């Protein structure tokens, strides 16, 4: 796949010849490509045959635009994220900076003590986003990269520019859940560090308000799981 300059605009060539994706998600495929001489990430929202053609086209257009706008908004706020090189909402394509760095997940695996500072910085970054109404939507340790002592947020595919308090609480819940599922022994220390950073940008009273919502979300999740278990036992 190549990118070429034509009449002041960039045209995609060989989109159908991208080969195997680096990652396959429910909504999009991610490829590592060369873009104007640079290594880059190409995210392609794939058509869904189970949806009506026009509805699918509209959804992919809207979600592509929303993701690009959210990344740009984060960058304007000083939150580290991949630079956007190119957006084609009709094709459902975003080309962005390739960041060669380990994920926070990998840092926790290798250096759990060092991960505390990155968790704190992540909390600061998320607090800045939430302050202006942006929620990430998929805040896991795999969607945070660490480079040169800084944290970078990636994969804004489920992000919202006008999020509710509950959506912001879901961000914190997802971060906690990702720790619980992959590094349960470090949940307490890495949550404490995250909340320290978050509180530094949002204040302690707001942080407590968000954590109260997080507790409600988690209680509801446990209730649903208990009901599912009970139903299975009754069958």
TrEMBL record:
Cross-referenced Gene3D superfamilies: Phosphorylase Kinase, domain 1 (3.30.200.20), Transferase(Phosphotransferase) domain 1 (1.10.510.10)
Single GO term (MF): protein serine/threonine kinase activity
Reaction equation(s) it catalyzes: L-seryl-[protein] + ATP = O-phospho-L-seryl-[protein] + ADP + H(+); L-threonyl-[protein] + ATP = O-phospho-L-threonyl-[protein] + ADP + H(+)
Residue ranges constituting the Protein kinase domain according to the UniProt record: 16-235
EC nos: 2.7.11.1
Lineage, top ranks: Archaea, Thermoproteota, Thermoprotei, Desulfurococcales, Pyrodictiaceae
BP-aspect Gene Ontology terms: tRNA processing
Protein name: non-specific serine/threonine protein kinase
């Amino acid at each position: 796949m190549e990118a070429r300059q034509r009449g002041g605009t960039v045209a995609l060539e060989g989109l159908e010849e991208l080969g195997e994706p680096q990652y396959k998600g429910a909504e999009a495929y991610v490829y590592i490509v060369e873009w104007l001489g640079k290594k880059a990430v190409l995210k392609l929202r794939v058509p869904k045959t189970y949806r009506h053609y026009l509805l699918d086209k509209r959804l992919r257009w809207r979600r592509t635009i929303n993701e690009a706008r959210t990344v740009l908004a984060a960058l304007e706020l000083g939150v580290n994220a991949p630079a956007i090189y190119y957006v084609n909402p009709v094709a459902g394509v975003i080309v962005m900076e390739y960041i060669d760095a380990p994920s926070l997940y990998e840092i926790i695996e290798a250096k759990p003590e060092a991960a505390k500072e990155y968790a704190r910085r992540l909390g600061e970054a998320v607090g800045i986003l939430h302050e202006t109404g942006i929620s990430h939507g998929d805040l896991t340790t795999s969607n945070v990269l660490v480079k040169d002592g800084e944290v970078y947020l990636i994969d804004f595919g489920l992000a919202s520019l006008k999020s509710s308090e509950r959506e912001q609480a879901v961000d914190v819940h997802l971060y906690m859940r990702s720790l619980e599922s992959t590094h349960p022994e470090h949940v307490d220390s890495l949550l404490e560090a995250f909340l320290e950073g978050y509180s530094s940008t949002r204040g302690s009273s707001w942080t407590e308000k968000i954590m109260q919502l997080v507790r409600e979300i988690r209680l509801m999740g446990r209730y649903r799981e208990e009901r599912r278990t009970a139903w299975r036992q009754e069958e």
